[in-house]
Known about the structure:
The chain is about 70% helix and about 0% strand. It is mainly alpha-helical.
Amino acid sequence: DTDAGMTVLGMLVGAALAHNFMLASSPAGPTLYGKIVVILGLIICAGIGWYCREA
Length: 55
């Protein structure tokens, strides 16, 4: 199952990047950079949805 393997590998790489760039939350709560990235991600997703909407 190559798809399953790539999914797990992607999750591991994503977690490593989140921790290295201080985007991951801690027991103290989410970091400032994590909050900023979530807002940017929502804006990007909304922009893609707006761009791809049907007339």
